[in-house]
Amino acid sequence: MSTTPTTPERHRRTGGDLVVESLAALGAGTVFGLPGQHALGVFDALRRSALRYVGLRMENNAGFAADAYARTTRGVAPLLVSTGPGALMTLAALQEAAAGSAAVLAIGSQVPRAGLGGGRHGYLHELTDQSAVFRGVVKSVHTVRTAAQIPSAVAAAWESALSVPHGPVWLEIPQDVLLAPADVPPVAGLPVRPKELPPRREVIAEAAERLTGARRPVILAGGGVVRAGAEAELLALAELLGAPVASTFGGKGAFPWEHPLSLRSWMEDRYTTDFLEDADTLLVVGSGLGELSSNYHTFRPRGRVVQIEADLGKLEANHAALGIHADAGLALRALVDEVRERQGRGAGEWPAEAAVAGLLARVRERIDGQQLGLEQRVLAAVRDALPDDAVSCWDMTILAYWAWSAFDPRRTNALHSAQGAGGLGYGFPAALGAAVADPARPVLAVSGDGGAMYSVAELATARQYALPVTWLIVDDGGYGILREYMTDAFGEATATELARPDFVALAESFGVPAVRTSPERLRTDLAAALAAPGPRVVVLPARLRMFAPTHLTPTPLTERSPEAEEPRETAER
Q1: DSSP secondary structure string, 85-138?
Q2: Among 108, 164, 406, 497, which residue's Cβ finds the most Cβ atoms within 10 Å?
């Protein structure tokens, strides 16, 4: 006797389905996150969607992974988390995304609608005003109260994240809305028009006039150039003007490292600061001239400044300038066209390439005089081992401070670090996000032993998804950079020394192959790890030192008139 199989009851779509349908309609292919009780409606919907879910072991790490994914793809990275503690654990990552202009779309759940306003029902994870916590961190905050609002709210948040300047946004949806039946058709398409930010023609004309008339034009390229993908325009403008180009730490890769006009990235070097100060017209592109880009606010321009900045709050925030509120790519493209119409160079026929070579020689001489051979060998070994097409993600550790100044990323958008907000624990989870974005390329993460302890749980994530990330852990037994700061300031360090695990054994307990190396074997061991499939850990026991800071103002330069500043002085710089 045969039986007719019963047809399973068709699933009734919910608010959670509307979330994932909306993300898919907007072009998302991957979401990061960590589930929680109030968010289960959207996580249940994930299994019915084509979206790839990458789950991390801590919300802050999921946020760092989404941040690097957004930077790598120059797109939006959805991040799904739960209410209260889960939401709050994303704040440090969202602060970094805001500082680095990474388009992270964080979607958090909320207590049921009856509990909104706080304290009346005593729901688990309840906050008095959860959205208020995020308003000082992200670009925009969005709240949903009915299932029908979800597609439009997701689209509005997506559009905000991708509008110039890019940045993180927060969208929260109550638990009962995520579970409620969705009495609307499946989401087929959502129109979004991220706002561009073109420059005004009259300020471009004025900037071009100042640059073509300058005798010593110099360009400082910030992270806005990288985010806008405007490297070709920057190169064209620099060569038209014969202008040396320095890259901020966030702008690394914006200009070719070995170009004869490249000042590289020695932003914490007084020689470089003085070179920038001595420009009669300094073009700052995609940088707010904040603490690190201004050598700890010691930068004092003696000439005129032209600043292109998409973030209105950073425009002329630290120095008076001809301010151009615009996307770096659109503004540079307009400047190139305008400068070409003015027949390229104006009076700026100074020996720029000789000045650049002289500056870099002085920087090398200063570093070579500080007995820092170990540090330079370690950084060179990392550079030699890393394939040219690889991505590297750096934590807040001494080797990263060296990399900011002295590491050639070999291409744009290939070096990511947490120097925007400066939180520990960024390197490894960010590398996981970069690997998810492009699994065909190896990714290097660099951490100290202190920063590594923030994200050791993500070794399980790396293994679960077989991500090609090699994690270099420099084990110096403590918070190395804080040790140096405290010793310099107070004569001795406090609270910087750490007990730590055997990182090799710990990695192997997660099923991740690991090796303990030495400065002499580092290049070989790191290259082998990067060439192997899946995750690897390389541990380097070493106590590295920072180069001496030079942000203190040196003996003042001799006062001189513009007419007296010609070849001898400028050639030295």
Answers
A1: HHHHTTHHHHHHHHHTT--EEEEEEES-GGGTTSSSS--TT--S-HHHHHHTTS
A2: 108
**What does the chain come to in residues?**
573
What are residue 470's DSSP bridge partners? 444, 536
By the 8 A CB rule, do 84 and 125 touch?
Answer: yes
Cβ-count burial of 293 within 10 angstroms (0-12 exposed, 13-18 middle, 19+ buried)? Answer: buried
pLDDT, tens digit, 9 for 90 and up, residues 492-509? 999 999 999 999 999 999
Kindly tell me if the per-residue pLDDT of 6 is higher than 80. Answer: no
Q: Report domain extents, the chain.
A: 15-179, 201-365+564-572, 371-541
**Alpha helices of 180-269 — where are they, by DSSP H?**
201-212, 223-228, 231-241
> Angle of helix 150-162 relative to helix 15-25, nearest 10 degrees?
40
**Architecture per CATH, 201-365+564-572:** 3-Layer(aba) Sandwich (3.40)
Say which CATH architecture domain 371-541 belongs to. Answer: 3-Layer(aba) Sandwich (3.40)
**Nearest to 208, CA basis, from 102, 318, 338:** 338
Alpha-carbon distance of 45 to 70, in angstroms, equals 23
**CB 553: neighbour CB atoms within 10 A?**
12
The CATH classification number of 15-179 equals 3.40.50.970
Specify whether the CB–CB gap between 230 and 329 falls below 8 A: yes
What are the pLDDT digits (tens) for 151-177? 999 999 999 999 999 999 999 999 999
pTM of the model: 0.92
Could you give the CA distance from residue 30 to residue 32 in angstroms, rounded to a whole number?
Answer: 7
Q: Name which of 198, 117, 183, 154 is nearest 22 in CA terms.
A: 154
Kind and range of the H or E run holding 59: helix 59-73
DSSP one-letter string for 62-75: HHHHHHHHHHHHTS
Residue 108 and residue 87: Cα distance in Å, rounded? 6
**294-334 pLDDT, tens digit each:** 887 888 999 999 999 999 999 998 899 999 999 999 999 99
Q: Per residue in 47-80, is it b (16+ CB within 10 Å) or e — as a string?
A: eebebebbbbbbbbbbbbbbbbbbbbbbbbbbbb
Look-up of token digits 């394939």: 387
Q: How many angstroms separate the CA atoms of 78 and 69, rounded? A: 10
Chain-centroid distance, C-alpha 429: 13
HEC assignment per residue over 74-99: CCCEEEEECCCHHHHCCHHHHHHHHH
